[in-house]
Design goal:
The chain is mostly helical. 56% of the residues lie in helices and 12% in strands. It folds into two domains: 31 residues; 59 residues.
């Protein structure tokens, strides 16, 4: 009886540890992929290591028509959501050689 109870506790502990490990791996993976997100807010793009503009400068690019709605950004419920691949392409075409290095 004692051996069965100890074995059940061991299985329960292993299961708890496995769940905690999966949660930690999930959090780590989400942080690692944050820079690779395709759609990001205007604040996030202003903080992106490869984007040389602040969020206010990005807003100026939008207001001046340099970044185009439906291509580089979208308006979702009144918020500006940037498409990272299109913004990165904008930089490549217009400022090759002037991007920040990672």
């Amino acid at each position: 009886m004692f051996l069965e109870q100890t074995l059940d506790e061991l299985v329960s502990t292993i299961h708890e540890m496995k769940c905690k490990l999966e949660k930690i791996e999930s959090n780590f993976s989400a942080e690692a992929n944050a820079d690779d997100a395709e759609f990001i807010t205007i604040k996030q793009i202003g903080e992106h290591k490869d984007w040389p503009y602040s969020d206010s400068a990005t807003r100026k690019l939008i207001s001046r028509g340099r970044l185009m709605e439906g291509v580089h950004y979208f308006k979702v419920e009144g918020k500006i959501i940037c498409k990272w691949s299109a913004c990165r392409s904008y930089l490549s075409k217009n400022f090759a050689g002037h991007l920040r290095s990672a």
